[in-house]
Amino acid sequence: MKFRINLFSIINGIALLMVVAATLYPFVHMLAVSLSSDSNVIQNTVSIWPKGINLDMYKVVLEDSKIWAAYKNTIVYTFTGTLISLLITSTGAYALSRSDMALRKSLTMLIVVTMFFSGGMIPTFLVVRSLNLVDTVWGMVLPGAVSTWNLILMRTFFAGIPKELEESGRMDGLNDIGIFARIIVPLSKASFATIALFYAVSMWNNFLGPLLYLRSSELFPLQVLLRNMVLAGTSSSGDVTGIGGDNQIVEESLKYATIMVSTLPILAVYPFIQKYFVQGAMIGAVKG
């Protein structure tokens, strides 16, 4: 078997390698700095490889009660928000995928319009406040429970499922809820895994929502804690001063260590659903 290498393939490969390098470099650099000794960080000699392995920053992070509280909040928001979003998105997408649904095209058009026009931040905040959701867990998971893009993607996926399966389910005595739960959902694992990843990553990285809707520091997720550390330059533990001679540099290492700890869990989830990702995204994008 012969492989043909042309100029386009070479340029495309080089461009992709540059994109990968530009994407990975900040992550690798932060990991190297967080694992390096104080003296090497102070001398600014750390690039992509740690020098003088030092785990003190991770010890500080893992022993900080504020970070663990923020971790718990982030996990609660992500898990609860993803479940609610999947429930609302999947049921809405299934209804819109039914050809016999009344006003299906009109409702779909109204939903698509929201991709281009929205009320904006202030009206959304006023609605959340009027519903008494400010400074609550529900204020974190309900305002962004449905993504128009994810809804359309899942609707298109459901529309590609053979209608004969639904008809056979009705012959067995299933109603609409039964057909959705026993036939549609088991056949849509790829779509559910893909949409769940989209929602989980969005919720995990969300910090604008907490800034708008949360007032109590006990409810802050990791992203708000990281924002406060990066922008304000404040450390989360009083033990930081005793670790290195230059408190500012040590705080930089601490920020990187905190970022690494907060990023690794969501990265660890991806390999388990990677096999569904391309399948779910592509099928939902081209069928219907």
List the helices and strands and how they pair.
Blueprint: H1 7-35, H2 38-42, H3 56-63, H4 65-97, H5 104-113, H6 121-130, H7 138-141, H8 148-159, H9 163-171, H10 176-187, H11 189-204, H12 208-213, H13 222-232, H14 247-286
Give a nutshell description of this structure.
This protein has 288 residues and is an all-alpha fold. Helix content is 71%, strand content 0%.
Describe the protein in words.
- By secondary structure, the chain is mostly helical.
- It contains 14 helices and no strands.
- The radius of gyration is 24 Å and the shape is globular.
- The relative contact order is 0.14.
- Mean pLDDT is 80; it is low at 234-249 and 284-288.
Q: How many DSSP-defined strands?
A: 0
Q: What helical percentage do the residues reach?
A: over 70%
* Gyration radius, in Å: 24 Å
Number of helices: 14
Shape: globular
Low-confidence stretches: 234-249, 284-288
Note the main sheet: none
End-to-end C-alpha gap: 37 Å
SS-based structural class?
mainly alpha
Q: What is the N-to-C succession of helices and strands? A: HHHHHHHHHHHHHH
Mean pLDDT: 80
Tell me the strand percentage band: under 5%
List keywords for this structure.
single chain; 288 residues; mainly alpha; 14 helices; 71% helix; disordered C terminus
